[in-house]
Amino acid sequence: MKIDIIGDVHGCLDEMKELFRELGYVEEDGVPVHPEGRVPVFLGDITDRGPDSIGCIRYVYNIVMETRKGKYVPGNHCNKLYRFFLGNKVQEKHGLETTTAEYRSLSSKEQKEIRHHFMKLYEESPLYLEVPEANAVIAHAGIKESFIGQQGKKVRTFVLYGDITGEKHDDGRPVRRDWAQMYEGSRWIVYGHTPVREPRFVNNTVNIDTGCVFGNKLTAFRLPEKEIVSVPSRQPYVEEKFRLD
């Protein structure tokens, strides 16, 4: 299986469509299809902060659930939106407020459809995706080798949020261990979650969240070719989001 893993989209629908064109996909009835049968895999955080989160939900749902032409794993923003749709009390900040504002501007019929589609996408997708044919594991914030094949609360927290210590930096960001430095596995771990200016390769891991929503670029990692393909962002550049990469 040849796969194209797409980094954190965060509501940047135009850039996502441009990336598909750059990767050689052709739209058929609104769904990107590759002439060589390549499979796109979304790395989570398809919504929040960007200009068209609802459009991204529709687009990804159509690819993954309706036509079964792609795969998806959730990110922490996906988890929070799912809990919002469940009716749980969640704080509408850190980007969720942009998605909920879009959602509330829809008709009641459209709201029902979007809520159903996103919840179905979330519920029927794996926490992380093992792709033996590509010798890869795809997980939103990464995964330790000992966690592969496992489920449970610890694994879930790691996959959605990274290797957090429970402490916080002065600006409120969680302190995370650099788990990739300790990774010794032979499988590729492809992840995102933390914005970097350029894809970060450490051992057999790569972070492909190149901060599209913060004005940098949207990136895909192709396997088995180990090739990076990116398109420039159309969003304003936010320098401080990249100061620690």
Can you describe what's shown?
By secondary structure, this protein is an alpha/beta fold. Helices cover 28% and strands 22% of the residues. The protein is built from six helices and 14 strands. The chain has helices spanning 13-22, 53-66, 76-86, 96-104, 108-123, 153-161, and strands at 3-6, 26-28, 31-33, 39-42, 71-72, 129-131, 136-138, 164-168, 174-176, 188-191, 200-202, 205-207, 217-223, 227-232. The protein has a five-stranded mixed beta sheet, with helices on one face. It is globular and about 50 Å long. The chain starts with a strand and ends in a 13-residue tail after the last strand. The model has no long low-confidence stretch (mean pLDDT 95).
Low-pLDDT residue intervals, each spanning 5 or more residues: none
Task: Let me know the average pLDDT.
Answer: 95
Helix/strand-derived class?
A: alpha/beta
Name the shape in a single word.
Answer: globular
Strand content: 15-25%
* Cα distance spanning the termini: 32 Å
Can you summarize the main beta sheet?
5 strands, mixed
- CA radius of gyration is 17 Å
Sheet with most strands: strand arrangement:
5-4-1-13-14
What string gives the helices and strands in order? EHEEEHEHHHEEHEEEEEEE
The helicity comes to 25-40%
Question: How many beta-strand elements?
Answer: 14
**In DSSP terms, counting alpha (H) and pi (I) runs of 4 or more, how many helices?**
6
